[in-house]
Design goal:
The structure holds two protein chains of two kinds. Chain A is mostly helical. Helix content of chain A is about 65%, strand content about 0%. Chain A is globular, with a radius of gyration of 27 Å. Chain B has helices at about 10-25, 35-70, 75-80, 90-95, 100-130, 140-145, 155-165, 175-200, 200-210, 215-245, 245-250, 260-270, 275-295, 300-310. The chains are: A mainly alpha, B mainly alpha. Chains A and B meet through helix 1, helix 3, helix 4, helix 5 and helix 7 of A and helix 1, helix 2, helix 5, helix 6 and helix 7 of B.
């Protein structure tokens, strides 16, 4: 805390927070004497309490409740220890959904980061001149998952969708995308990536703009051009932004429910039943809330572990380390 | 994000241009494309291809939806082209006159505006306190406010639902407002703290010396300066409330309390024969208002999106 004046130290009169100060508070030690010690707490308390009530408490409550179970719908809650977790790990549906999730997350990461880099490189050269391009780029990020799902159902419709029309133009008989088990997953991945890509592009673009130009000049002197330069100079320099994008995309797909639910609802034949869908189905279709809480806790832990893994891998590629 | 120095000195701007071309893989040492005008045009088109791909990737889903929204139900199958043979507004008329749309539009507006205001009213003072005051427990409390940002909505879905059932708060717009505000606050506080820290203390110190008390400073000094940041968090809060789908799905059940995404979701599911033009028109009507607001204040939103999840 800096003091502005060298005024002699005077003990400020004690003032209650509702009392107006009659003179500028003496800056005895602390800037912006908050008129009262309670002021910062009064300012921040509503926010802290609301966040604790909406985000903090439910997680702890869910963790606690995942140790209980009802044998029947109306039966009282019984403490069962880790039985819900044991049941989860021995259920086929759980492992099926983990399998689907692995494909969903991996596919989204590969397509998302690949397209993100490609589009960020494309935008980088012109974004100063063509600002509207940036505005266009962000559009998918500001619409709801349900709207995106409707758009992609129309786009991939087997009878009149534009994708099949284009395939038909080349003489290919377009498949029924959302009725086919593996193609449905592809459409879900594409939709999820479509809604998440703007943020990835913006993150990578921001990284490109802050890349230290001297590295690039040095690589030019060394004769690196084109793809070599992108691969060995620019992408390593972008490592922090790529890492953040990976963490964020992985989080978004692992915990994302909206796109899957609105697009396929887990179908066809559970082909897109990701772990988040499994949690939702267990809770709100089977009404096994405590079992669902075990799955939700598992998702949170898995997400944290994956983040650690990404950071650990990312450290190896970080130039600054 | 746009802090690139455009460079007044020629030497520096050469370096910048070189760096820019280095990133894109164009070599500045390469001789200028051979004089032929045709070649230059071709070259320009080739360089523009990735950008065209970007625009297509982003806009095609919007375009096909707009296209379908101007067709009749049967026409969708008979005339799959992008530009309808006989465009008409039947689908829009149908949606606009349906109660499910009008009611959920009102609900979405109430929840959206409520969330926006509550987020600003609660988040801004908290951020100011964290940025300007030095008080015991500041770091710990800030951590308690920011860290829950990592909690995904799927982690709180069942607990929030059970709690809402327990206290009888289902089917209430107020519940939605409070829940969305709670979810948005970590981001809002994070953005505002960063912003308040950028406002030079000296401005407030000067006002202090001139006799402005805390409220005077907040009213006449801080608020006007913080307006852009407040717009940013306001837009992000409105976006969350307008688009959120999974929590409203579990927190409401009666028709009169649903928001737009929920109603749109039901429209996909309930109708036996898919009403594609209706869905498309509903989607466009849901998306359009926010897109229109968004284009006005794009730079605030982009700044918010980046700093919100980037750091």
């Amino acid at each position: 805390m800096t003091t502005t004046t060298d005024r002699p130290e005077t003990k400020p009169k004690r003032r209650r927070w509702w009392q107006r100060p009659d003179k500028p508070p003496s800056s005895g030690g602390q800037f912006l004497v908050g008129q009262n010690k309670a002021t910062p707490y009064l300012f921040s308390l509503p926010s802290i309490l609301l966040v604790a009530a909406i985000l903090g408490f439910p997680v702890i409550y869910g963790l606690w409740q995942s140790l209980y179970r009802r044998e029947r719908l109306a039966a009282p809650l019984e403490y069962v220890g880790l039985q819900n977790y044991a049941d989860m790990f021995s259920s086929d549906a759980f492992w099926h959904s983990m399998n689907r999730t692995a494909i969903f997350v991996t596919g989204s990461l590969i397509i998302g980061i690949g397209l993100g880099l490609f589009f960020a490189f494309a935008l980088f050269r012109v974004v100063q001149r063509l600002r509207f391009l940036r505005a266009v780029t962000v559009a998918p990020y500001i619409i709801s998952n349900v709207a995106a799902a409707v758009m992609f159902r129309i786009l991939f419709n087997s009878q009149f969708g534009m994708i099949n029309e284009v395939l038909g133009f080349f003489g290919i008989d377009g498949p029924s995308w959302l009725a086919n088990q593996s193609l449905a997953m592809l459409v879900v991945i594409l939709t999820q990536v479509w809604t998440d890509l703007p943020l990835t592009i913006l993150l990578l673009l921001g990284g490109l703009m802050t890349v230290d130009k001297s590295y690039l000049d040095a690589s030019l002197v060394d004769g690196a051009t084109g793809w070599t330069r992108a691969r060995y100079v620019v992408i390593p320099l972008l490592a922090p932004q790529i890492l953040i994008s990976v963490i964020w995309l992985s989080y978004s797909t692992l915990t994302g429910l909206g796109v899957v639910l609105a697009l396929t609802g887990g179908g066809p034949l559970n082909a897109t039943q990701t772990i988040a869908m499994e949690m939702y189905t267990t809770a709100f279709r089977n009404l096994e809330f405590n079992q669902a809480l075990a799955i939700a806790t598992f998702i949170l832990v898995l997400n944290a572990l994956l983040t650690l893994v990404y950071v650990w891998i990312g450290r190896k590629y970080d130039y600054e380390q | 994000m746009s802090h690139r120095d455009t460079g007044s000195e020629p030497a520096f701007s050469t370096a910048t241009a070189r760096a820019a071309s280095a990133v894109t893989g164009r070599s500045p040492e390469a001789p200028r494309p051979a004089g032929s005008r045709l070649m230059r045009v071709v070259r320009k088109i080739l360089l523009a291809l990735p950008l065209i791909a970007l625009v297509a990737w982003t806009l095609v889903p919007f375009l096909v939806t707009i296209s379908v929204s101007f067709k009749e139900r049967a026409q969708v199958f008979a005339d799959p082209g992008l530009i309808p043979d006989a465009p008409n507004l039947d689908a829009y008329r149908e949606v606009l006159s349906s109660e499910s749309f009008t009611t959920s539009l009102v609900n979405s507006l109430i929840v959206g505006i409520g969330t926006t205001l509550l987020t600003i009213v609660i988040g801004v003072p908290a951020a100011y306190a964290f940025a300007r005051f030095n008080f015991r427990g500041r770091h710990l409390l800030l951590l308690f406010t920011l860290l829950p940002r990592l909690v995904p909505s799927i982690g709180i879905m069942v607990p929030i639902y059970r709690l809402a059932v327990a206290i009888g708060a289902l089917d209430s717009r107020l519940t939605l407002i409070v829940v969305y505000t709670g979810m948005l606050l970590p981001l809002a506080v994070w953005l505002m703290v960063g912003f308040f820290q950028q406002i030079p203390r000296e401005i407030e110190e000067a006002a202090n010396v001139d006799g402005a008390n805390l409220w005077g400073r907040l009213r006449y000094i801080v608020s006007p300066l913080a307006a852009p940041a407040m717009i940013t968090i306001g837009v992000l809060a409105f976006r969350e409330a307008w688009n959120e789908f999974t929590l409203v799905l579990v927190l409401t059940s009666t028709p009169g309390k649903r928001t737009l995404p929920y109603e749109l979701y039901l429209m996909q599911g309930i109708e036996g024969i898919a009403n594609f033009p209706g869905e498309a028109a509903f989607t466009i009507l849901t998306v359009l208002p926010f897109i229109l607001i968004y284009t006005r204040i794009e730079k605030y939103v982009v700044a918010g999106i980046i700093s919100g999840s980037g750091k």
